[in-house]
Amino acid sequence: MPPLLPxxxxxxVAGQLKPGDMVEIAAAGYAAVVNNRPDGEALFGQxxxxxxxxxxxxxxxxxxxxxxxxxxxxxxxxxxxxxxxASQPGRVxxxxxxxxxxxxxxxxxxxxxxxxLDEVLAAAMQAGQNLDLVGETMVALxxxxxx
Length: 147
Prior knowledge:
This protein is of the alpha/beta class.
């Protein structure tokens, strides 16, 4: 399993997860998994979303599929992620290829919920995710998600 990098007390990001990782994630106290990687992005070695969802649900985890490429998340995806955090009291792991897209989505949802860009950038950096280049994108997505 790739390392789970905590962005705050509730959300961690990770690189590509595999179906076999879901039991370990549940055992670590997480309640939900968010997939930010589109099916078929990699030619080899990338599990299908349906397999991941089955494994997550079998492990007792909520599974949310919010795939996007590059920094191109949508305001609806930001709202869905923020809604999961608002409705789900447990801890959440979001994943993509490296954790960067997932950190961007968390950052935009955090900004939509009232955190400052500086807070988001600092928290992401502590988790090893440098979001400086997508700061403006996160702010725009966060603002659009509030609209």
